[in-house]
């Protein structure tokens, strides 16, 4: 599907979503006003009905029409827009893209973050995943300051903090390892195929993980945090753990208590420290001590 068409589909969804219910005539009027997408040309009704079907295939959203006048269109399964899924991510990405396309006149006033790992190898890895083909990569290890060749099955991809990561099952060791795409120095698609392992699930692999460290030796457990009232606002709007993994169990004028179900791995501990003195670990005791020890080592550095 052409990029331009996907942008048009996202625009239709976003426009109907914002209006809640809208007639075809009003939708068409807004469409023609958006010259970047429409070229100033009218949207034909038969084209709109064809795009409704493609919107369902692309984003999983059902656009229906009222049975009586004024015959307004609406998103029937609007709850799907709140689920964490690739369809929602695509919709959000293209909706933002449309906003940026409409804002080229003020482009010098809109500053964006770079995603360095998505440029060179993302498409190649997705292609290998579709075909279940082995890949050869040369990978740079920060800790060892060296490169190493790997032959692996690309199992899944995850985007975290503006970087793409791949879980690959190395061969012949059959170890599942996480690789950051911007540390790949060379990539080759193998001629050999593999059968996708039945014992692997991307969702289960990252269950309980804050980021991309999926250490199965670190069990999922309850972490209780005391957060200042000011910082608690941010935690409500942007939870550290998505879904049901984060619950606010107490709220006062000065602080809130949050319970998180998480693997308290290194990247999670770094997130806690990012909050500085606005956050305190109450439980478990081993994690409280670990964070305290880290803070003490930092204090000594500044002495």
Would you give an account of this structure?
The chain has 303 residues and is an alpha+beta fold. It folds into three domains: 3-105, Arc Repressor Mutant, subunit A (Orthogonal Bundle), CATH 1.10.10; 116-199, Roll (SH3 type barrels), CATH 2.30.30.520; 221-301, Alpha-Beta Plaits, CATH 3.30.70. Helix content is 37%, strand content 27%. The chain has helices at 3-19, 24-33, 35-38, 45-59, 86-101, 122-131, 202-205, 229-237, 266-274, 285-301; strands at residues 22-23, 63-65, 72-75, 133-141, 146-160, 163-170, 176-180, 184-193, 221-228, 246-251, 255-262, 279-283. A hairpin with a 6-residue loop joins strand 2 (63-65) and strand 3 (72-75). It is globular, with a radius of gyration of 24 Å. The mean pLDDT is 89.
Short description:
By secondary structure, the protein is α+β, with helices and mostly antiparallel strands. The protein is built from ten helices and twelve strands. The chain folds into three domains: 103 residues, Arc Repressor Mutant, subunit A; 84 residues, SH3 type barrels (Roll), CATH 2.30.30; 81 residues, Alpha-Beta Plaits (2-Layer Sandwich).
């Amino acid at each position: 599907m052409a990029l331009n068409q996907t942008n048009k589909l996202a625009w239709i969804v976003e426009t109907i979503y914002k209006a809640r219910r809208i007639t075809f005539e009003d939708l068409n009027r807004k469409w023609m006003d958006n010259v970047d997408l429409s070229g100033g040309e009218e949207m034909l009704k038969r084209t709109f009905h064809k795009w409704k079907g493609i919107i369902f295939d692309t984003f999983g959203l059902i656009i229906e029409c009222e049975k009586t006048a004024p015959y307004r269109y609406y998103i029937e399964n609007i709850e799907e827009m709140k689920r964490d899924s690739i369809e929602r991510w695509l919709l959000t990405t293209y909706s933002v893209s449309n906003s940026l396309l409409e804002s080229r006149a003020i482009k010098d006033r809109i500053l964006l973050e770079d995603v360095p790992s998505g440029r060179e190898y993302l498409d190649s890895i997705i292609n290998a995943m579709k075909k279940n083909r082995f890949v050869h990569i040369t990978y740079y290890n920060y800790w060892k300051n060296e490169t190493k060749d790997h032959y692996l099955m690309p199992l899944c991809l995850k985007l975290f903090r503006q970087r793409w990561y791949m879980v690959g099952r190395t061969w012949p060791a059959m170890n599942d390892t996480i690789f950051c795409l911007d540390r790949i120095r060379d990539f080759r698609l193998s001629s050999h195929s593999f059968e996708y392992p039945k014992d692997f699930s991307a969702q289960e692999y990252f269950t309980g993980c804050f980021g991309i460290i999926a250490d199965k030796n670190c069990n999922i457990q309850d972490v209780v945090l005391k957060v200042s009232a000011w910082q608690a606002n941010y935690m409500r709007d942007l939870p550290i753990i998505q879904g049901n993994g984060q619950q606010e169990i107490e709220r006062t004028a000065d602080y809130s208590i949050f319970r998180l179900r998480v693997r308290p791995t290194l990247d999670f501990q770094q997130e806690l420290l990012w909050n500085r003195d606005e956050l305190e670990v109450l439980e478990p005791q081993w994690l409280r001590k670990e964070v305290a020890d880290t803070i003490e080592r930092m204090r000594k550095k500044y002495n």
